[in-house]
């Protein structure tokens, strides 16, 4: 076998394997969606709002976080005011035990964070399996990876803020991990601790990162949405209502508590892992720091460049085509296209109509929405002609 033939057969093997995996994964997710549809109908199926749900939880986090912020004291000193010890740990205890519904608000904040991460992963997996992340959508994908990393880091800083023994241990583990990095390790450690060692300034830094990055999320979200014509960012009120109910149930069933107050002279060495936010600390304690950093960086890089990595093994995206002789310039396709891939241009001289639709090829995702929008059969997907789709639907309906 010559090497070029061998390469081609390797490519085919890879292509078939990858597409087979995506096909099976997609079928499994569709079956789960169908199952939920039977129970709650498609209108209320939360999986159809996999993008809107992280956004919903973000609003819940902002609101509950604002209430917690009102009483939080970002210090680690043992300062006394009217004979009462005032620091981060005692302020969190005060919120939980003494403010009316303080414990509930704290629980909602914690569980909404977990739910947000869960739905972000579902969302990312869904857009990957349905092939809605390549080409013109690369910016949604890359900004999505940035959002995920930011959300994970924001959640971790939330754990430091409680300033119990787990916070102290996580802070120390982070410092050791940063110290293991060549060149950038030392400045990163100084930035993280806001100095050389853990002080009051460290905790105000954590608070600043936690809140500052949460607001920065809004900018990255803008980038995430800017290329979509009508992103679905709010689930139906009934779904929101049920989700808040589930959060409340979780809070009552497993109320959030703090561990013992952190003491800089103690050496806590065990902690409870929150698998949504702290899995990297678990990894860190089960491998060398060098392997940890290399695998984390590799995972982040592979996730970011996935749309380009799979370029050669994914099916080509064939853009929609306008049948000029049939186009009336009604603009329905232009209004319905989710990716601003249709432009209305002046029709050529002598035409009965003023405008004509044209497809901006690099933006077209081959979604077919314009085909459904056009009442004049004037736009089609070459690989899936309208007539074939209609006859398939007829055959399917007759078989039922
Ligand atoms: C804070 C986290 C995130 C929020 C709030 C969010 C929200 C959304 C929303 C509301 C949409 C529009 C969905 C629609 O209209 O059907 C969307 C689309 C998209 N998101 Fe996210 N997302 C987040 C994270 C991610 C992540 C982590 C990824 C992948 C790594 C990702 C990749 C995408 C892609 C590729 C699309 C385009 C899908 C399409 O065009 O149908 N997102 N996102
Ligand atoms: S297939 Fe049509 S609706 Fe979909 S992106 Fe292309 S032009 Fe827009
Ligand atoms: S919907 Fe059809 S007829 Fe109307 S502008 Fe688009 S392609 Fe032309």
What does this molecule look like?
59% of the residues lie in helices and 5% in strands. The longest helix has 38 residues, at 3-40. The protein is built from 14 helices and six strands. It has helices spanning 3-40, 52-69, 88-97, 102-129, 138-161, 165-179, 185-193, 200-225, 237-253, 279-284, 289-309, 332-336, 369-373, 386-399, and strands at 79-81, 84-86, 321-322, 342-346, 355-359, 379-380. α6 runs antiparallel to α7 (185-193). It has three domains: 1-39; 41-309, Cytochrome Bc1 Complex, Chain C, CATH 1.20.810; 321-399, Alpha-Beta Plaits. It is elongated and about 90 Å long. The structure holds protoporphyrin IX containing FE and iron/sulfur cluster (2 copies).
Radius of gyration: 26 Å
From the spread of the alpha carbons, the general shape counts as elongated
- The tally of structural domains comes to 3
CATH topology of the largest domain: Cytochrome Bc1 Complex, Chain C
CATH superfamily of the largest domain: Cytochrome Bc1 Complex, Chain C
Number of helical segments?
A: 14
Kindly, what is the distance between the CA atoms of the first and last residues, rounded to a whole number of angstroms? 50 Å
> Multimeric state of these chains?
single chain
Number of strands: 6
Side by side, the strands of the main sheet go 1-2
Tell me the strand percentage band: 5-15%
| Percent helix | 55-70%
Which CATH C-level class of the largest domain is it?
Mainly Alpha
The kinds of small molecule bound in this structure are: protoporphyrin IX containing FE, iron/sulfur cluster
Indicate the CATH architecture of the largest domain.
Up-down Bundle
Structural class: mainly alpha
* Largest sheet composition: 2 strands, antiparallel
Name the helix and strand elements from N-terminus to C-terminus, one letter apiece: HHEEHHHHHHHHHEHEEHEH
């Amino acid at each position: 076998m010559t090497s070029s033939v061998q390469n081609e057969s390797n490519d085919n093997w890879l292509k078939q394997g990858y597409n087979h995996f995506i096909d099976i994964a997609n079928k499994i997710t569709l079956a789960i969606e169908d199952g939920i549809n039977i129970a709650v109908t498609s209108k209320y199926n939360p999986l159809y709002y996999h993008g809107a749900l992280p956004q919903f939880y973000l609003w819940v986090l902002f609101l509950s976080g604002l209430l917690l912020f009102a009483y939080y004291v970002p210090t680690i000193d043992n300062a006394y005011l009217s004979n009462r010890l005032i620091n981060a740990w005692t302020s969190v205890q005060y919120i939980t035990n003494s403010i009316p519904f303080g414990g509930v608000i704290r629980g909602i904040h914690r569980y909404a964070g977990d739910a947000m991460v869960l739905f972000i992963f579902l969302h990312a997996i869904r857009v990957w399996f349905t092939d809605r992340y390549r080409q013109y959508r690369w910016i949604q994908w890359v900004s999505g990876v940035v959002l995920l990393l930011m959300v994970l880091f924001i959640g971790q800083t939330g754990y430091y803020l409680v300033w119990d023994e787990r916070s102290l241990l996580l802070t120390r583990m982070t410092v050791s991990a940063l110290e293991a990095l060549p060149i950038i390790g030392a400045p990163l450690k100084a930035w993280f601790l806001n100095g050389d060692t853990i002080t009051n300034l460290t905790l105000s830094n954590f608070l600043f990162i936690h809140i500052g990055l949460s607001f920065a999320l809004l900018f990255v979200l803008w980038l995430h949405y800017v290329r979509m014509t009508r992103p679905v960012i709010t689930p139906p009120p009934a779904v929101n209502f049920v989700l808040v109910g589930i959060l409340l149930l979780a809070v009552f069933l497993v109320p959030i508590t703090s561990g013992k107050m952190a003491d800089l002279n103690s050496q806590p060495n065990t902690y409870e892992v929150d698998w949504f936010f702290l899995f990297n600390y678990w990894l860190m304690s089960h491998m060398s720091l060098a392997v940890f950093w290399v695998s984390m960086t590799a995972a982040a890089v592979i996730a970011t460049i996935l749309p380009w990595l799979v370029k050669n093994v994914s099916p080509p995206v064939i853009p929609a085509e306008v049948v000029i002789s049939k186009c009336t310039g009604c603009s329905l396709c232009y209004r319905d296209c989710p990716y601003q891939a249709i432009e209305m241009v002046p029709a050529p001289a002598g035409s009965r109509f003023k405008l004509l639709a044209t497809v901006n090829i690099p933006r077209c995702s081959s979604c077919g929405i314009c085909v459904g929008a056009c009442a004049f059969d004037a736009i089609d997907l070459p690989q899936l002609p309208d007539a074939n789709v209609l006859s398939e639907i007829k055959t399917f309906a007759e078989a039922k």
